[in-house]
Amino acid sequence: MNRPAWLLFVLVSVLWGIPYFLIKIAIDDLSPLLVVAGRCAIGAAALVPVALLRGSLGALRGRLGPVAGLAAVHIVGPFLLITYGETHISSSLTGILIAIEPVVIALLMANAEPITGIRVAGLVAGFLGVVVLVGLDVSGDSWGLIGAGMVLLAALSYAYATKLVQQRLSDVPPDALTAATTTISTVVLLPFAVFRLPSPGAVGADSWLALAGLGLLCTALALLAFYRLIALAGSNKAGLVTYVNPVVAALLGVTLLQEPVGVGTVAGFLLIVAGCWLSTRPTRTPSEALAPVT
Predict the structure, then answer these.
(1) Using alpha carbons only, what angle is made at residue 16 by residues 11 and 21, rounded to the nearest 5 degrees?
(2) For labelling alongside 70, which of 30, 43, 180, 228 has CA 20 to 30 A away?
(3) Could you tell me what percentage of the chain is helix, strand and coil, using 3-state DSSP and rounding each to the nearest 5?
(4) Number of domains in the chain
């Protein structure tokens, strides 16, 4: 990756390690549905003026179908799954489970980059990491298992969304794409969220600030950077931001929310990281493999 891609990679890695911590704070006083709808609405309010000023919305003409599909699989679905999932599991475990995303991307992109023996080993390691996490961290807790399942479904949805952007929407300017997806998501969610409004004075300032951070930083800015990263580096490399996301999420959860991290959490995370690394290694052609080292 070139320098702009690396800078975007670091930015997205940090911005998408923060939301699990902010979600945990926001759902103390706000319903998960309202958190997701509010997050989308704040993101759209920030992004639409940017797209209008840049005159990039014309690039969406004739793309309503894939853009609406992207809104469903990259925002509405996974945001709801993660937020409701965090009512049952810790923010640090949520971030670690999301790290399975590069393994899923490797499977989805198998036609473009064949699954080699090393990649199979990576896929197996990643799967074992999830088994260890779920088996040791939430074993015997039915609601914990449900929460973990929601987060894993969100990871699958994120992986498909990454592939969708690269294959069908990589030529759309990121500001137009993010403005459209957040607006569509807001329109879909707000009619339901109005029935979940809190009573006056029932929400603390920390919850409102967390929601603002989710909308401005973790949605608007992060999506802009991520879609641009996909265009520069491709879906496989862009998906590797989940190497760093869990570290940020775990550090915030442990230091600020006093969430426990057991042996199972560490072991599962290491297996997932190893699986991601192996399953996303670039495939060399026979001529490249036989080329002399200089």
Answers:
(1) 130
(2) 30
(3) 80, 0, 20
(4) 1
